[in-house]
Amino acid sequence: MSTTIKGIAASPGISIAKAFRLQNPEISIKKITIADTDAELSRFEAALVKSKSEVQVIQDHANKELGKDKADIFAAHLLVLSDPELIDSVIEKIKTERVNAEFAFNEVTTTFISAFESMDDEYLKERAADIRDVTKRVLASLLGITISNPSMISEEVVIIADDLTPSDTAQLNRKYVKGFSTNIGGRTSHSAIMARSLEIPAVVGTKTVTSAIENGMLVIVDGLDGNVIVNPSEDVVQEYKDKKAAYEDKKAEWSKLVNEKTVTVDGHHVELAANIGTPNDIKGVLDHGGEGIGLFRTEFLYMGRDTLPTEEEQFESYKKVLEGMSNKPVVVRTLDIGGDKELPYLDLPKEMNPFLGFRAIRLCLEMQDMFLTQLRALLRASVYGNLKIMFPMIATLAEFRQAKLILMEEKERLLAKGVPVSDNIEVGMMVEIPSTAVMADLFAKEVDFFSIGTNDLIQYTMAADRMNERVSYLYQPYNPAILRLIKMVIDAAHKEGKWVGMCGEMAGDIVAIPILLGLGLDEFSMSATSILPARSQISRLTKAELDHVAQQALTMGTADEVAKLIKM
Ligand code: PEP
Ligand code: MG
């Protein structure tokens, strides 16, 4: 019997494949007194052997599929599993304290992790992350829990998970992962954003997809309408094959606009740029007719690994993007970690409200070494193209001034050393906290540009977590409160002769686009796959008419009234 699960269409397209359940089990450890310590030691030995062989298989696979870099992480894991000091301490504990292997192993590794973390040597500090990963594997093996390894997938699948962390998503292999569906998340959660940049169909926020789907079941992910169909009949499979073909035809029609400018019927030009997460996304941007990069989310360079990226690694990535875009504008956002994007190896304490916490520019202004490494890499790369730098999560003028000062001082230092740096780098900021929209007239005097981050601006204005489906009814892009804030920002910038972009998901939303055009937005930055449909839509719109529509929208009382006005 086929069943349909409703969710949120997070990345367009249709995939039909077997389900792969991705599970990150909770591990809880109890202390148990052991009578037969020899048997316990054998159990521990067996878990080590099993873990080693698992890691070995992953390492071989990573070597083949992902390259030596990623595979080396697993070499470090193997070293931990054979470390005599660690293993002997566990054996000692089991023997003398007569405790169970899980408890002993967890106690010992916890001590090792904190010892490594407190070391001054960066390399040794980073080993803490390896021990943490390996600990989880050994404990899972002792407890009989299975850990899934997405990097091991070697046939076409649709991933089914409660949630995918951004780093899970970053490691998905496009060759095999044809789609995914999760219980939680919304259109602007980072797994959804990554799915769009990887061009993998995705349906998120289904609430029940993990309870309804077992490993190996045939699944259709309809990322166009937000449906997941489980155990489809042959007829249903055929129906979706036809739907997929029709979508491909539409894409072929849009692709004719790849080299066109984006112009309304009455000749008003806007720029359609793309949001990217890694240099590998550039090909997709150019294939989809992107006129620039409106947002390079650099945090993805920091994810899916165990250590901070070095200046050299970052320099190469920025250079690759700038060169790849051949002088088209590239807006790089400095590290925006926090919220739903975690970096386990930074070991930041858990917070009650991560979206309102120590994140993004707040963290960079405090961890200045890390910030400076990124800024240096950017400044050095600036001579390879048209670089613009923007700071995320600015809340106050003081923060913007401080961030800009740090950047400018670093630039002077590099120039003094004879390192070439472009003298044309625009410095701007994201407007994603309501305080900055309200104060946009003052910010506009100091920035070179604004980029409105509606994903966060909406959640902070409406006090509705962008990840929480239960309050998603309050997450209202068309709410006049949001439109008024956007208008304030655009008007304030234009008064100072500055340009305004938008890099939140709203910029690629077909209902919002006419209003944003009417409000005077200059640059729309979106998932690469949204660019051609947006260009096609804009080429059929008349700016002069939309100016009136936008004014009308600003006077409406509710988001529904605004949506109705546009759909009329
Ligand atoms: C935003 O908040 O709109 C934005 C583009 O940033 P992110 O989605 O990375 O938080
Ligand atoms: Mg944001």
Keywords:
single chain; 568 residues; Glucose Oxidase, domain 1; TIM Barrel; eight-stranded mixed beta sheet; eight-stranded parallel β-barrel; 23 helices; 16 strands; binds magnesium ion
Tell me what you see in this structure:
The protein is globular and about 85 Å long. The chain has 568 residues and is of the alpha/beta class. β15 (499-502), α20 (512-519) and β16 form a beta-alpha-beta unit. 48% of the residues lie in helices and 14% in strands. It has three domains: 3-21 and 148-234, Phosphohistidine domain (Glucose Oxidase, domain 1, 3-Layer(bba) Sandwich), CATH 3.50.30; 37-143, Enzyme I, Chain A, domain 2 (Orthogonal Bundle), CATH 1.10.274.10; 261-567, Alpha-Beta Barrel (TIM Barrel), CATH 3.20.20.60. The chain contains 23 helices and 16 strands. The strands form two sheets. An eight-stranded mixed β-sheet has the order 1-8-7-3-4-5-6-2. The protein binds phosphoenolpyruvate (PEP) and magnesium ion (MG). Phosphoenolpyruvate (PEP) binds at residues 188, 295, 297, 336, 432, 453-456, 503-504. Residues 432, 453, 455-456 line the site of magnesium ion (MG).
